[in-house]
Amino acid sequence: MAAQISNPTIPGRRIKLNVGGKFFETTLSTLQSAGPDSLLAALSNRAAYNPIFIDRDPEIFSVLLSLLRSNRLPSAALRRFSIQELAEEALYYGVESRLRSVSLPSPLHGIDAAIVDTIRPASDAVPSTFSAGEDGSLWIAHGGQISIYDSYLSYSTAVRTHLDDITSICRVWPEIAAVGSESSSGLHIYDLSSGHYTGSVHWTDQDDPRIYKARVCAIANSPDSVFVSFDCPHRENSVIVIDKSTLQVSSELTRQSGSAAKNTVPGKLTWLPETGLVIGSAVTCGAFGYSGYIRIWDPRSKEVVWETNEPGSGRSSRFGDSFADVGVDIDDSILYKICSKSGDLAMADIRKLGDDPWVYMEDTNPSMREASYGGNEVHLHCYKRQVFVGKDGGLEVWSRLNERGGWSERRGDGENGRDEVSLRRNYVDKVEMGERGLIKRIEGGGERLFASRENVEGIEVWESSNHSAIISVSS
BTB domain: from which residue to which, for each copy (predicted)? Predict the structure, then answer.
């Protein structure tokens, strides 16, 4: 025993701590498992015979010590303390990464997604739009404010902008937001870490008097540029490229008059990392149904490399069943559309686009096919090689999974020279969710899916669970 006490580097050496007046006894190896840069590892190197005093909350320290011992949180911990309380103490001790690894959700599999929470800002809680971060954090725009929630979905702060309302928001850097409003012109930049307004970018043309009061409709982000679609009161519209280093307009991808459906302003923009292409889509709905276009630009040449108009010049095996929304799977370079009449989902490989590149998804079991589609507004979002569709108020999930639960790979050319892909569909509480209102926006972040509903307060948070039934389908 004397040899163990004299050698402070023995992993099993006992160390006594006095945290806020409560005594704890643990081993050197437990404290050092916090990591070499942590406060606990630094304290463990002290060859002290008297308990080391730490002026912090002993109850939360007990939870964090249990985390170091078992690499999990005690079952009662989250009933006693909020994640924010645990995170603040974990940051002090230098074990925040350990806490994050055990408290954040498991990988998001849409086939068993379920609502786990609803995030409601304190005031003006009906959101106008929102943005999800790669770490699972959330920015909610409501009125002219942006409420900020961290990766634990704990409320951080709210930033009041100079706008009356915010209808577009995009993360151009981790703490920098680009926002637009349907009631005010220009793209506006805010540093959300400090709440400061940074500047604005406007679409103007001194030689064209029709270009004035241009409002933002869609925003996409790349490492070097921000792509923004603008719309003027007389329907002139454009997609411009903004240099992120200078926040100045560097080029104009397109300019058109929105007098026809095929020339309306893009309501969605997506930057494709694999190729650097920009994909825009627009949808209009009138007395004769839906119509719209999908257009792909190369920002380097400013040329359109592919486009389709529905109904119109685009040739389709479903002519007359125009799409109601479009999504892009940036991981696999797959373009998806949801049909306005049938509610069917179709996919196209962006690397093999042609006159009619669409492959339509169908249920393999006729008894499980959708009996009807109400024709209401639909929203489509691609995330983590999965397709999420808000349809008739319910959430429909298409997952590219193989039979063993892993992600499927392309299996070579199938019929008509097209790749065969295995997908599974799941309806998540379709009837119950429909009663909650129509889904207005879907976005993924971290291992979560977020959704807002028409005239409903708050943002729904979806995570993986084991409560939903699975319906097998294939293309």
Answer: 13-111
Q: How far apart are CA 387 and CA 400, in angstroms?
A: 9
Q: Do 209 and 337 lie in a common domain?
A: yes
Instruction: Provide the pLDDT for residue 203.
Output: 96
| 138/464 Cα distance (integer angstroms) | 18
The mean per-residue pLDDT over the stretch 320-326 comes to 90
Per the CB < 8 A criterion, the answer to whether 335 and 347 are in contact is: yes
Burial class of residue 428, CB neighbours in 10 A (0-12, 13-18, 19+): buried
Per the domain annotation, does 386 fall within a domain? yes
The angle at the Cα of 423, spanning 330 to 102, to the nearest 5 degrees, equals 65
Q: Higher-confidence residue: 429 or 291?
A: 291
CA distance 447 to 462: 9
Q: What is the pTM of this model?
A: 0.82
Are residues 223 and 127 located together in one domain of the fold?
A: yes
Q: How many CA atoms lie within 13 A of 235 on its CB side?
A: 8
Report the distance separating Cα 459 and Cα 107, nearest Å. 20
